Amino acid sequence: MKITPLLLCGGSGTRLWPLSRKSYPKQFVPLVGETTLFQATAQRLSGKSFNRPLVVTNTAFRFIVVEQLATSGIDPNAIMIEPEGRNTAPAILAAALSLSRNDPETLMLVAPSDHVVPDTHAFQEAVKAGIPAAQDGQLVTFGIKPDRAETGYGYLELATRPDGDTPRAIGLKRFVEKPDKASAEKMVASGEYLWNAGIFLFSVKAILEAFETHLPEMIGPVTEALDQGECDLGFLRLAPGPWAGAADESIDYAVMEKASNLAVVPYAGGWSDLGGWDSVWRDGELDENGVGTSGHATAIDCENTLLRSEDDTLEVVGIGLKNIITVAMPDAVLVADASCAQDVKKAVNALKKKGAKQATEFRKDHRPWGWFETLVHGERFQVKRIHVHPGASLSLQSHHHRSEHWVVVQGTAKVTVGEDVMLLTENQSVYIPLGTVHRLENPGKVPIVLIEVQTGIYLGEDDIIRYEDIYARN
């Protein structure tokens, strides 16, 4: 029997600010290697043992999901769009209800899309080991053998100790909330606890029965949200009205902590949820002094330190640092003691209070057709670099308050300005007067890169009237 993966990718990842932000969170970023965490998760849960994945995300990330899956050569079963984040329980229930309409006996593997699991084969073997228990109606979770007294994870108390290295499902006594340091040390020393990875395997029938037993009031609104959902360019938009009536609950709290038909597969392979910069440092490549650097960072006489530059024009140099985390972006720099890595979200909240857009937004803004970044922003003018994917098209649009000048620096652009349609190649330009209807398209097989100079009294992204849009954006 093949397993249907459910990929959850709606989180914001504020503890990895400034690299991860609400507008483009950590699951879509190549934090480890050249592949994003979302792509690595999708690839890990593909192959002959798996059906095409089902994805639950939000409207802001829908085109990013499609693009990154396509780049990985993966065709999804379906992509569900949550009207708003309601934690993991409603998302998992919506997916289970959808799958039950075709095969209520099918197995589904629920996986966050922002974890690092380096050994794909070992993880897939652990999943296989959980299949008999899942087919028998048990709710199977995957527990990570702890190598330290970590206070940032929940724990799983085992009913029996693991026997040998061959993965198999064993009894699970209970879920344990994130402990304090002393409790974590005792649990790790006992050998009777595992980290809760938040990865689950069960049959659709079993998880629906669990919801009926432990949280029946959620089934009605989620079923209505699914039934009243609308198809939109291949996405399924869950209906916002009923969805708002579903409780904001995690699957752990809503079902798992109350269920009696639990099992766990211990997993001793590499794993990390990259829940903070201390995790990125710990799981990265370190030199003999415990120092991790990116290609544009240099460490001199440093110890147990992480130095990262996320811009190839920005060199970061650390001298004599100990237990320091430094992450530099073009518009924001984080410097923190490693012991305070879990407090980065406090910085995000502080920036929000002072109205700093760096709290949630990047200079580079992703769109379904590509991306743009602001190079210079001044009073009444702005300069952007715009990247348009092959075959992609911006909407047919106009602006109330600004005019634009486009200079093509790479590729060939099909440009509509009023009634005129023209092809522009490298080093050619066009002027778009204020209020003129216009569009940019990429008819070629290589990306278009152009420089846009905007001038006007208001340069906000909301100054746009769309007349036609292949991505059906309002």
Any overview of this molecule?
It is a single chain. Helix 3 packs across helix 6 (204-214) and helix 3 (88-100) crosses helix 7 (219-227). The protein has 474 residues and is of the alpha/beta class. It is built from 11 helices and 28 strands. It is globular. It has a 6-stranded antiparallel beta sheet with strand order 18-19-20-27-22-25, with no helix packed on it. It folds into 3 domains: 3-267, Alpha-Beta Complex (Spore Coat Polysaccharide Biosynthesis Protein SpsA, Chain A), CATH 3.90.550.10; 277-353, no CATH class; 364-468, Jelly Rolls, CATH 2.60.120.10.
What do the pLDDT scores average to?
93
Overall tally of structural domains: 3
Classified by CATH, the class of the largest domain is Alpha Beta
Helicity range of the residues? 10-25%
Shape assignment: globular
User: Uncertain spans, ≥5 residues at pLDDT below 50?
Assistant: none
Kindly provide the radius of gyration, computed on alpha-carbon positions and rounded to a whole number of angstroms: 24 Å
Structural class, please? alpha/beta
- Assembly annotation: single chain
